[in-house]
Amino acid sequence: MIMACHLELRVKELERSIGFYQHLFDQPPQAVTPTYALFCAWNWELLLIPGAGQPIGWGLRVEATELDRWEQKFQQQGLALKRCSFEHGALKVREIALVLTDPDDHRFSVYALIPTDLP
Question: Contact at 8 Å (CB) between 7 and 44?
């Protein structure tokens, strides 16, 4: 049984990134040292490590009926987000995503896939 997904992100300023993810997860990190910060939330283990790195995108897929709840949660937390919609013809779905960008340009999204009648 898989217990959690683990993701390591390189960040330029550890304290600034801790602040962003503390807002996102609505909880403090489980551990903070000069060389890392660890958040455990939503079945994710997110390890923030000081240093240069390329921005990545990551996210959580949810039921379409939950997107409005997530959007309200992020807005109440004062997080800037963008709602996007994408057509994936090969999959015959439309993706609706709530996209947030952290201080290091890593993109986090909460998204749903909605079946379409595309040929």
Answer: yes
